[in-house]
Amino acid sequence: MAWARSQSVPTAMPRRNRMTMRRREMINGYVMLSPWLFGFVVFTLGPMIASLWFSFSEYKVIKPPVWIGLANYRRMFDDALFYKSLSVTLRYTVSAVPLGIISALFVAVLLNFNVWGARVLRTIFYLPSVISGVAVAMVFAWIFNHRFGVLNYIIGLVGIPGPDWLGRRQWALWAFVLMSLWGIGGNMIILLAGLQGVPVSLHEAAEIDGANGWRRFWRITLPMISPAILFVSIMSIIGSFQSFTSAYIMTGGGPANATLFYLLYLYRNAFSWFEMGYASALAWVLFAIIMVCTLLSMRVSSSWVHYEGG
Amino acid sequence: MAVSAVHVKRRRQVGKLAQQYSLRALVYLLLIPLAGFTMLPFMWMVSSSFKPIGSGMRFPPQFIPPHIVTTNYPLVFKTIPFLGYMRNSIIVTGGVIIGELLSTSVVAYSFARLRYPGKNALFVILLATMMIPFPVTMVPTFVLFNLIKWVDTYLPLIVPAWFAPAFAVFLLRQFFLTVNRELDDAAKVDGCSDWRILFQILMPLSKPALTTVAIFSFTANWNDFLGPLIYLSSARKFTLALGINYLRSFRGGGDIAPQMAAGLMFSLPCIILFFLAQKYFVQGIVTTGLKG
Of B139, B149, B268, which to mutate for an interface test with A (greatest number of A Cβ within 10 Å)? Predict the structure, then answer.
């Protein structure tokens, strides 16, 4: 078999035959690729082009789209709810993403000590991630209840009266941030795998040189897992900009639009008011924001992310 | 001299050991409360599902129900067609998984094993599509499905998965690349077609990766809320995710206790699957996270 490989069988054949084999491989390649290619054109590329076109049109489904130029984008400038939903989503992202990553890293570092029962604990921390957004939202709506909820009961034990989490403008978004911390399991697993990939020899060498645990964490562990941190950050930002289900179920965007997440507002434009044109423009603005954030984090990352051998 | 040196060395070792033990104690001291907080919502869900109706309006909340009530579970079945919704969820999730496994294997084979011009560029495009947020394509895709009269059927939820979702292709391709080529080369010499190599050699060897794809696809689709919310309008066609949310709008059945019972029954398949296949979950997350 090693012989067959090193001889790379096609070259051993006559020239004409080789050409047909190459061509056959090429045809097969495209044929086997075609499901994805078709899906890409019909469900991604096509819709993207259509969405761009809709975003420059007035389109309410019953009548064909009418080109209105930049009017949809101009409309956003005067749309108080657009600003509101954008600011809700940005504030949520800015608080939930760093908090979530720091917590995930903290738990991952603790689990990486390989204490007895670490596997069971890992399971416990990941479990919330497999439970549906709907069930989670239903439980948390109840936990956050200001009169009968468990959270305020626990806060009350310390002697502080808990706030009306979901009923007050200044607290509602924080309830969502708190809730997001429950779902850090996926990120935690990625970071833990990163931690486990840090070579022990590096730590041993540093230890001989007299670096203490804290120093080793900052100088060796963090740089070594920085690619994983970057990946987790980017995916969390993208996910956080698309928060929808919990707000839809728990608050419906209230109180006074304090939890009107961007995607919730977009959804309403598209499917409650059938403003497909405006909704498409909103989607492109969201896309642009996500792209800018991703590129920005990649740009900034080059100063702190360490790639092995690069 | 020599004695004291040994003595010092031993003392240092003892000190180090003590330090290690205290570090371990600290780790437990931090981890156990955190794990407790993580379990809390979950246990709260379980305990509330066994409390009588109206007990949610009680303060202080009771963690252990004074007497266990099991009527919430039958009440869920009486209030909403839970089993019907479950069947719908199974149809959608099953349809997605079958299509995703088949189409993804074929496409991943093409990316991992065959040579043709433009392959690398197309693979970059595939990776890029993973970054495109769902909302961008959501509106036109709805318009398209509305045009061909597929709205309020399961087709918009199932059919796209039959065209090789990018995430799964990526995961499988990575796995195929790690499978030794010697086997397929040998099969090729014997005149095996690419299809047979894929279905009879590569796929049986890739069971772990296929399982990972199936599991992720299952949890994602079982739990999906926005998709069914957009496409399904008649109540009897709802999937479970929509159905248990619908439960909240009923008197009695919409009380917190039956809500928790429904939520628990709904989450149970994912939880069981997770315990059965934990290693695949971890593997899948790690593959996409670190090599991505």
Answer: B139
